[in-house]
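Protocol step 4 of 6: structure prediction from sequence.
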Amino acid sequence: MNAIHIIMATSTSANPHNIPNERIESVIRKRKISAITFLVFGILLIVAGSLLTSFESQRISVSFIIFGIIGILFAFMYWISAEKILIALRKFNADRMREAQLQAQYSDRYNSRDANYRNFERYANLNHIGLPSYEQSVISHT
């Protein structure tokens, strides 16, 4: 979930009026494209290395095969990281939808409150959040 918050904090998708997941989805798409590219080049390097062994170029063929294996490993790493971000994004969206459904279900409670009561309720339980002692003392005395 940290990756999603970092991406959202550094992008325009933090604004709820924009498309909220556009930036994250583009990062996922780019990582998957990079993974496919690494996989293709890794396979090509392994094939080239195996073909070079028939021409008695042992040094070059071994390095081609090693770089091909490294490319395939990078492909799997990029694909797995994209999937982890996608899973975290789905969890985040599910939480947002659940919260929106609760607000819609109890909309009479949310609409009947005035702004002062909402602000008080928001800051009422801050002692449990773990604020530094100065902020806790200021909030508890006001």
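Step 5 (inspection) to follow. Residues 2-105 form one domain.
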